[in-house]
Amino acid sequence: MNFIIRWIVTAIAVAAAVWLVPGVEVINNGSSWVGIVFFALILSLINMSIKPILQVLSLPVTVLTLGIFYLIVNTLLLYIAAWLANGLFGAGFYIASFGSAFVASIVISIVSALVNSLVGNEA
Length: 123
Description:
mainly alpha, membrane, 2 strands, Phage_holin_4_2, globular
């Protein structure tokens, strides 16, 4: 049940990023919500599996940069999720530039934190 809630929260955050950030788009033949749902699924799975490993590996650099490097890790995971979503599902999640991905990762983090606080889910 916790994964389903995390998936829904991530889908809401990704939808907000697609809506707010120029350069982040869902290009799909069908509904754009289908692409957002598949992308949120992949991003949730990556956040649960790969993100803790990358956080531990990048801990020294994150401490030296006072936590700013953590945003770079989130941006990298966003790129990985977009690559997998396009390859596996053909979701057509398009990121125009590193700046767009960086701002989208910030938006996704903020919206996820807000929605998780409303839902009462610890993520």
